[in-house]
Every structure is written in structure tokens, then in C-alpha cells.
DNA sequence: TTGTAAGCGTTATCAG
DNA sequence: CTGATAACGCTTACAA
């Protein structure tokens, strides 16, 4: 019962043979006699021998690990993404190192370096809300580490990316509000430095324009968390004309709106209809259930990891950045279910 | 713009000095002249030098990484735990390797080995529902890797553990149901091989006994997911006497019950009161809001990581297993809010 | 103050 | 068929 893992040396010593023979036997090299192989494998099993991934990585410059940089794991979307990433990595025999930034630029730079230190073979990134500089990411690329962005992509860096069509999803959500009769639709937006925030806002604006509704900048609020909703809702509902629809940039925000709107004495969807973005499990728990855009976290994660693994294993050598855009789907539920 | 990370060799060559000098200069060794140090640090910066963690790990047998084995990341509780773990690890300068088992024993054994291969310095574990054998975990211990269990602990292995007091939480939840007038309380339980399932069941039973209510084994169902609730609820509600209270082993199940019970035409809490376990964000989104036991995922993760790091850094040499039991708190909400 | 060399665990090259 | 040996990047006696 060793308190430290066995090495090929241990096996070699025990058998009175050389480490190179052990090494070869272990990987079924044709040169080695069946007899030796059997003996080696047996003692290996007996000692619970497991190859040291650090030594392998050092030797081959391949750590067999990919990194993930993610804002916050405690969101359904992001944890779904991680699930997808893990499954893809697992299938390919890769390990995953997950790092949260907690939406902090400073922490994002730190984990990027930590991942570099560990010589991960590639990194999947969704940038923090507060990230405006990206040297830490180009640093990775300069060190030969391929990057794949997902969801929160960085437009300043040329790299693979996997996203849902945010523009289109927002357009659909807004158009649907118009279709059920909303004429004064508020958009609760994410920061503009996030491309997804920008794109969803544009989708919202375009849908209004295409339906000959005015785009009122005062109807657009930077408001992407429950706290901000609680902070601003009274002011928003006090406006004239009163809003009759909300397109929120994510489900959390949409749900906070529903709760606050109900609390304020309005009916959802009859007085005010609401759409969100993401389709997390909460969407069917809130009452009324939430109309929202499906975001396919698992698939995004899986595909992003596939992109990365393709680059790593060089099965794709084309240096041009690839982009996968998932077709969004609007899931219609009660929060917009009213007769026109 | 190198496509491969710089090494101390590169620095040494560039400066015409030896690698050992570089190594020492980089770590501010007193023997090295200020002049050399400056030169070394400058070129290190210029080359974006970062120490190779694999080489360091190999040399020192310290990977600076801890592992996490977790059933499914897409649950609020588990992702909160990971957040706590990451923060603690981050503070201590450690990296985290997260592995999901998707509740599968086979995958649990695989990731345990992968973590061993990577020579993580310790592992935090919450076992899968289907795990009945634990050789893969004792294997880790035999290799000198300290284990800390959290939430889903394994009673067959002597090791540190961090949990919430499941027995007490269940007792409180059940007693509260009794207090608001329930007399025929159903328990939706987790598998008994999970200690948490067992303990919560016992807490439920004991609360009934202490209040002179009969413990009817037919009132206990193995039912810990939404799907199972949907599958069984009709049969359960058809029993006579009709259940007037549910204590569900987790929030997801509790919420499914509320939704199904309402769908069946009963009022919650007036006809049927419901309590859950976990206090995830869904608890305040469902209507009526859910009375549930707070589970403190973040704190559990943080403390578990602290336990592990204490062992790793040998600041604790006491071999005896330590156990931290969080005091549960019952969060009373609408789903049990009725006058007696 | 700096350099040389050994070693962490493994594999590959080159000799037997 | 098997065994030395060097090398991966780094640290650390031991020399100089």
C-alpha cells in the first residue's frame, strides 16, 4: 500500500529489467516478448500503476487538457455549456480545467495565465462583462494555444466561435411581442461591450423598425440582473405611455420583471407581455410560464469543444476562423399568450 | 511572436548565461546579482515567459491542482459548491479540475483514474447515485491522495467530510408540515444507498414518531426527479386518506409536486402543503413560493476545499477524519403558509 | 556570483 | 528482444 504512485521504475526494479523495456511492454510494442509483456502488465496491475500525466505532458508538450474560461458557473446556460464541453472532451480522452472569472477582468487575466502555465492545449472562452482589453487572450494565441469563443465572443480577436444567432433570436422575440399586440416595448439590455448585448439590442430595434414602430432610446435600459430590475422597475412602469411589453436580455431578468409587474398589480400577459432569452428550467416554473429564446447551452458547449479539438488534433489545419451559429428558436409560452 | 511558450533555456541562451542562473534570478535568489536579475526579468517579460507547470509538477511531485468529482454540474447546488471550491482554491494558488460523473458509476471510476494520472494533490468528491463500490476511491487514498467528501458522502471510507445536517433538516421540514396541520405526509425520497437519502428519510420518520403520527411505509416513495414525480403523482394523490403534505428530498422534486398538484385541482398549501430541500433560486420563482431547507452550497464547497488544502499543505497532520456539519435552516415560504 | 550536473517519469533513438 | 542514454523544463546541491 504505497503512499505514492508507482512508476515504471518500480516495475523495472521489481522485475529486474530496464525501464525502457517496461515502457515498451506497457504500450504493447511488437519488439517485446509476450512473456515480458505479461509479467510487466501483471506487476503494473498489482502496483496500480498509472502513467504520470505530468511526465507525459512534459515529454510530449501535450497536456491532454483543455481549459475553459467562463463568467459564472451558477447559471443554467453556462453549466449546460460545461456539460457539453466535458462530454466532448471525455469522448476525445481530454481533461477539462474550468476557471470562473466571476465577471471580473482581472480574474480573467489571471486564469488565462494559469491555463497557459498548465500548458493546456486549447481554451474555450466566454468573456466577462467587464473585459474591454484582451491582451491576455492574444497572449495565449501568441503562445500557440488555440482559442474558441462561445456565446460571449470577442470581436477584436480572430478566432473560432460558436454562438446562437443573437440578432435573430432577439428579432423573433420582439416580433412576437408585436404580433400579440404590444406597441410600446421596453428592452432590458446587457452591456454594449458584450457583442451579444449589442446584437440582441439591434435585433430588438430592427424588429420595431420593420413593423413601423418607433425606436425610443428611452425604452432601452442597461438592466441584466434581478437586482437591476428591482431597482428600476418602478421608474419604468411609471413612464407614459406605459410599457405593454418587455424583451429582456436573459431569463433571470425576464422573470424578475414578471414578478415585479405582478406585484405592481398588472396582469401578465394581458397588461404586459414578457419575453426572455435562454430557456432555462425557470422558464416553465414561473407563472405565467415564460416565452423565451432557446439557447442550446449543451450543444454550444459540445460544438465549441469539437471545434477546439479539431484544431488541437490538427484534423483541421485551415487557419481561417470557423464560426458556428445555431438557429434560435422561440419557445412560446403563457407570458405572451393573449388574443390580439 | 513565438508559437511555443518560452523556457528558461531561451532566456539563458539570449543572455549567454546558464539556466540555473536564470532559474535563481527568476525566484529572486539572494546569490544573484541585481544586475543579472534585472536582465533576466526583463527578457522574461519580453518573451512572456511563464513557468511550465508540468515541469514544476514533475520535479516537485506537486501539480498545484485539486480535483472535483461531482454528479451533475447543472444543478444549482452543485454549481454553487464548485464556486466555493474555486474561490478557496484560487486564494490558495491552486487550480481546479472538475469532472462530472453524470450519476454513472463507470464514469466515476474513469475520472478518478484520470485525476490520479494528473497527480492532483487532493480530490473533493460527491458520489454518484449509482455508486455502490468504492475501490476507485480507496485506490486514490492508497496513492496518497487525500479525499474530502461533500454532500453525498461515502460511509465506507474514512475521510474528511463536509455536509449539511440532513437528518435535522428533514426533521425540521417534516415537523413544520405537522405544525401547519398536515397529518398524512408523503416523503419523496432519494435512493437509500445515498446517505443523504437515508438520513433525510430517517429525519422524516422520526419527526412523525415524535409527534405521534404513524409512519406508513407506503407514504415513502423513491422519487427524486421531476420525471418520477410526473410518473407517480396520480397514483399518490389517489390514495386514501389523501396526502395533505409532501416532504420532497430536493427542490426540483418539490416544485414538480406543486405544479402537478395544482394541475390536479388541489390548492397549495391549503389542501396540500409542500416542503423541499436545497433552497435554490427556483424556490422563490414557483408560485406558491417554496418552503425549503437551506443547503449552503457555496459554503460547503468553500469549507470542503479548505479541509482539503489544509491536508495538502500539511498544516493539519492529524490523520483523524474531520467532519464539518452545517446547521440547516428552514426557510418558510408560501407553500406551507396556512393557518392551522 | 555563476555554472555543472543530477533527477522528477516517460519515451525515443541508438546500440547491442 | 532488451538496455543505455538523452531529452522534455525546471530546481538544487555541489563546484568553481
Question: Keyphrases for this structure?
Answer:
homodimer, 340 residues, 434 Repressor (Amino-terminal Domain), Rossmann fold, 3 domains, six-stranded parallel beta sheet, 12 helices, elongated, DNA-binding
Structural commentary:
The structure is a homodimer of 340-residue chains. Chain A contains 12 helices and 12 strands. Chain A is α/β, with parallel strands linked by helices and 340 residues long. Chain A has 3 domains: 8-51, 434 Repressor (Amino-terminal Domain); 63-164 and 297-326, 3-Layer(aba) Sandwich (Rossmann fold), CATH 3.40.50; 166-295 and 330-336, Rossmann fold (3-Layer(aba) Sandwich), CATH 3.40.50. In chain A, the strands form 2 sheets. The first copy, chain A, has a 6-stranded parallel sheet with strand order 2-1-3-4-5-11, with helices on both faces. In chain A, α1 crosses α3 and α6 (105-117) runs parallel beside α7. The longest helix of chain A has 16 residues, at 76-91. Chains A and B meet through α4, α5, β2 and α6 of A and α4, α5, β2 and α6 of B. The structure holds a DNA duplex (16 and 16 nucleotides).
Intertermini distance of chain A:
74 Å
Secondary-structure-derived class of chain A: alpha/beta
Q: How much helix, percentage-wise, in residues of chain A?
A: 40-55%
H/E element order of chain A: HHHHEHEHEHEEHEHEHEHEEHEE
At the first level of CATH, the class of the largest domain in chain A is Alpha Beta
Count of spatially separate domains of chain A: 3
Helix run count of chain A:
12
Reported for the largest beta sheet of chain A, the result is:
6 strands, parallel
CATH overall fold name of the largest domain in chain A: Rossmann fold
Would you identify the CATH H-level superfamily of the largest domain in chain A?
A: Response regulator
Overall, the morphology of chain A is elongated
Amino acid at each position: 500500500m504505497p503512499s505514492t504512485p508507482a512508476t515504471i521504475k518500480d516495475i523495472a526494479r521489481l522485475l529486474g529489467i530496464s525501464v525502457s523495456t517496461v515502457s515498451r511492454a506497457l504500450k504493447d510494442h511488437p519488439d517485446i516478448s509476450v512473456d515480458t509483456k505479461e509479467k510487466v502488465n501483471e506487476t503494473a496491475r498489482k502496483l496500480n500503476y498509472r502513467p504520470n500525466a505530468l511526465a507525459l505532458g512534459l515529454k510530449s508538450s501535450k497536456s491532454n487538457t483543455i481549459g475553459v474560461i467562463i463568467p459564472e458557473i451558477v447559471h443554467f446556460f453556462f453549466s449546460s455549456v460545461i456539460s457539453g464541453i466535458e462530454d466532448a472532451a471525455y469522448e476525445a480522452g481530454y481533461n477539462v480545467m474550468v476557471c470562473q472569472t466571476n465577471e471580473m477582468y482581472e480574474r480573467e487575466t489571471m486564469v488565462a495565465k494559469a491555463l497557459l502555465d498548465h500548458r493546456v492545449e486549447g481554451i474555450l472562452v466566454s468573456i466577462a462583462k467587464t473585459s474591454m482589453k484582451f491582451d491576455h487572450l492574444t497572449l495565449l494565441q501568441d503562445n500557440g494555444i488555440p482559442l474558441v469563443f462561445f456565446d460571449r465572443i470577442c470581436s477584436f480577436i480572430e478566432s473560432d466561435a460558436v454562438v446562437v444567432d443573437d440578432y435573430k433570436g432577439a428579432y423573433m422575440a420582439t416580433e412576437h411581442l408585436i404580433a400579440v399586440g404590444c406597441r410600446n416595448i421596453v428592452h432590458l439590455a446587457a452591456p454594449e461591450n458584450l457583442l451579444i448585448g449589442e446584437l440582441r439590442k439591434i435585433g430588438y430595434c430592427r424588429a420595431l423598425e420593420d413593423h413601423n414602430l418607433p425606436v425610443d432610446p428611452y425604452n432601452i435600459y442597461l438592466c441584466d440582473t434581478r437586482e437591476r430590475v428591482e431597482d428600476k422597475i418602478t421608474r419604468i412602469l411609471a413612464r407614459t405611455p406605459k410599457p405593454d411589453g418587455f424583451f429582456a436580455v436573459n431569463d433571470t431578468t425576464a422573470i424578475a420583471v414578471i414578478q415585479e409587474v405582478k406585484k405592481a398589480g398588472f396582469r401578465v400577459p394581458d397588461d404586459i407581455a414578457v419575453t426572455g432569452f435562454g430557456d432555462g428550467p425557470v422558464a416553465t416554473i414561473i407563472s405565467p410560464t415564460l416565452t423565451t429564446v432557446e439557447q442550446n447551452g449543451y450543444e454550444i458547449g459540445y460544438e465549441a469543444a469539437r471545434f477546439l479539438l479539431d484544431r488541437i488534433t490538427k484534423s483541421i489545419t485551415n487557419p481561417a476562423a470557423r464560426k458556428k451559429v445555431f438557429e434560435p428558436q422561440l419557445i412560446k409560452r403563457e407570458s405572451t399568450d393573449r388574443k390580439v
